[in-house]
User: Fold these one by one.
Assistant:
Number 1:
Amino acid sequence: MAYNPNTRHQGNTKSFERLNFKEQALSINGQIASLRMAIRAHLRRAATERRSTLAVRQKCEGQVKRLLERLKTI
């Protein structure tokens, strides 16, 4: 089966649009939690590689701020 980026994890093939309101909310919350974990891991990797964690944190914050600004236009 071909990869479909609009489907959920673990073989469940229901698209986001077909989820009910509660399922969509849970999915969004899960994606936000995953983003938080990814940023934390990225900061740990930056420290391991002796990069500026402050610069990396600021870049991530900028990306999240731009995301929030885009959400305001929806």
Number 2:
Amino acid sequence: MLDAGGKTCKDVRDLLNNFGLPVPRDAQTTVVAQDSHWTVGAPNANPVACARPRRA
């Protein structure tokens, strides 16, 4: 889902908003490293979230 980049889907926005991270409707997902690191935020602004999978 995140590896596609581009517009952040509603499910991801809702999840981040539930954790107190204000993600706007026009948020974009940027792939930093496929399958392992993404950022989410408004276009042309600093990211509001950084996502990485949990390591066991």
Number 3:
Amino acid sequence: MLKKQSFHSFKGILAVHAVLLLAPTFSLAADQIVGKRPSLPSPGKAQFLRQDYGEIEEIAYQPSAVKWRLPNGNVLTFVAIRDNRGEVTALAFAELRRAKNRGIASVPDLAGAKPHDIFNALSKPGTVTPGFLKGHRSDTTRSRPQGWARELVLSPDAIKDVVVGNPQLTCPELGWSWSEFREDILSKDLPLSFLSEGDGPQSKPKHWRETASGQYRLYGNVHDVPEFYGAVLYCSRDTLEHTDTSDPRVVWRVGPIGEAPSTVTWDFLQDLGDQLTFTFDAEAENVPTSIVGKGNSVSLHIEFPEQGDKFYIGAAWSKISDTLTVSQ
């Protein structure tokens, strides 16, 4: 039986001490995290890394967040971003799609869907909808029965079920092409974007920082974003160094500039082809226009990969200015 996982937040200061400009809208830098924050589970603890999900389904409700583990091992996270008055100012959604499984993107009618639409499409009839989602639904949701897309997502991908698990293969050989990943990022019709193919500590060392303990980290953030979509796909494994207790971890955080951001979601990418996507929307229905997009930052952390690991990394966003900073 799986245990419910809590949502973490931290207080800390990110001190950037070197910056490299890569494109008109994107820069990479080394950073140092100082200050004190609650820690996520450390690497090397196998109980956090490898679990047989079987057919277990769990939904953990909190006042501003829901974490939902589907029977196939995919994980969906819904989070309400609130201001200091407790009002919902934005919604965030994340999907961990396990390598052998279909995901939200496999259902064309869910392209561009709002979080409430996704919850309604995949939940069993009678499942309680989180209160913070009820005011943010589209006309499509009102016209479709609860659970209409559930079987489409839960049905296995027969082709990938055969090839996944072979650490010698890479993303294209496993059925995830760079062109499809790129198209997914750019299909969001957001004006600014960043794309990096085969990104890893060895292949693109300027994007990564090696800590004193020999661990590699990548960190990125963008400020004042009303809309954001990002994805990290695990594409190539360092088979010489990798063990079952050294899976890379991806963390997405969001919060007001100048305050400690909240961890919206985090998880380990266990198999090549595992992908963690993140969507942030401050232009949801019923969000006052006076606070849309003001002061929100989105950040990405990739932690504990081996030196030869590689990822597809992509992001698209909208904002008034075009400066995005990404660092280790």
Number 4:
Amino acid sequence: MIEKLDKFLDVLERLLEILRPKTFNVIARLSAITGLGLIIESQVNIFQAILIAIFEEFIAKSDWLRSIVDGLADPSVGIYVLSISLIYHLLMSLGLEYISIFKARVPKVPEFDLYLSTQSGHSSEDSMLQLDGPIYSFEQWIEIPDYKKEPEQPKTTNRPHSRLSLELLDQMLEDTTVFPGSLGRGRLKSITNKSLYRERASLLKEWLGYEPLKLSLSNEGEQLASDLRVQLEFPVSKHLDIKEPGVSLPCKPEKSETQYPFIESLHDEMFKSLFNSELPLRYFLKDDHHVITWKIEKLQGGTGLDARIQLLFKVTGPVSGKCTIFCDQLPRPCGFDFQLLPSSSVEILDQSSLKNDDEFNKRYAEIVSVFKDD
């Protein structure tokens, strides 16, 4: 209601400024004099008599002209002109002043603009943002073969007298695994991980393709905004996934099965809980929606603020979201809808990214660089 009233007063003020030239006093006086003249003339008929006399003297006698002149004897036209001139003068002289006084009495509220931007500097315009990308395609990973350990080359040494001790040491390191936190030492034969390529594929499908989005809020009004809370909501969709930076990444799959993923999973959940409880920017799932909340103590008028944490988004299709801003100075929360669009760039990965160690390590390094906690 306050926003609509403020806009109406702005439109009315601009309209009066257009209708108020510098010579508005002269226009009002001339209009008033014209109205008074029409009223007097309707009663005295001096100008009408002069007009009829001149016409009949030089042209001819005309009953039609006399009938028209008799119709002008009504003073209502002059009264209308005089009234309009007085109203015009009052509006031009007092209207703008009263509008300014009334606008000053209207409670001022903050005016917010929220932006999402990518690393390349692209920001949301017209409530739409297209991500930089690229989108990764895994369509060539339909049939992934088993991993087969390559035959080892025979070892050579320039010290023949130590060959037996070296072979025994290698055998001990290969055949023995120490369980962390166990009461003693156990022995486990190292087994070739035949699912190596499939584990690599699973890791890349889940973690590759995220990019950070920066959240920015500006207060375009003059009023201080306090106890701010920004809430973004996205419906759960196959085209969207969100993660926090600094989250514990899974280790690279090993060629021998000696990892304990349950330890990493537990650490990841503990870290995520700690992350969400201590930072002003939080992400969680609620009622089939991705929810992001950002708490701000205060924001001065005419200033802006960037969120310290940049959440990581993976968008593979158009996603619609809703933003709601809560503030003590707002009579009610304000909100708007926006849309995230996927990148137009698509990169197709073949199985060399799984079989070639250097290629896989390159992709894994990309993931680490995106998720590192700055």
